[in-house]
Amino acid sequence: MNKILYIVGAFMLLFSLGACEQDLPTYSDDQARLNFDYSQYKSGLVNYSFTFNDKQQDTVWIQLNTMGYLSDRDRPFELQQIMTGRHDAIPGQHYVAFDDAAMKPYLVIPAGKNFARVPVILKRDATLDTATFNLNIALKPDADFQTGYVAQSSMTVTMTSQLSQPTEWRGAMNYYFGTWGPVKHRFMMQVTGKKWDDEYILSVQNDYNMVSYLISQLDKALEEENAKRQAAGLPYLQEADGTLVAFGW
What we know:
Largest sheet: 4 strands, mixed
Order of helices and strands: HEEEEEEEEEEHHHH
Helix content: 25-40%
Strand content: 15-25%
Structural class: alpha+beta
Number of helices: 5
Shape: elongated
Distance between the termini: 64 Å
């Protein structure tokens, strides 16, 4: 009896698998779509500061990926700025406009490809010395491409000439070095001689021995700095809002 039940069960399982296989939907949407690639910039946010260099112009690269079939022809697309009403970047003043002739060669998905890397060309305007401006980028839908996933339908680039939180200061950095602040960041630069920009953070954050050494170095320097400040009748090193600068876990 058990043998019969086993055979019947096996037959039903095979039948079920076969039915599931037949029920699998096939991709039949002829409309191609574009998503912003968040693999490099989590949550679609890029923080950029000219404070780390003396350049008058610099470039941040972003990537868009296609959804749908590949094509045997080049497919141009358009990007647009979405205004927020809060320190929106001004095209031509803070960045090279997406409809500028210099951008045209980059706004295309090449034949047989499923992605495009696009430069966001930032300009060092005097207004960046005292404020941070935001550039919210989205696809301008057309016959070739519509927007894809809602969660990956835009990318935001912030720009300033002030010291700003690096894009990579998150997760492990918050755990090892605490919440970011401009006073803390500047102190870290002074003590280590490093910029603590995205490039440097990526080079050290997964090296436990280096991180331990840096925390020890910063802790010692902070202790010495606070002793000097106390002797001079000054408060411990702190941010503008009164948050004390501290390191370690």
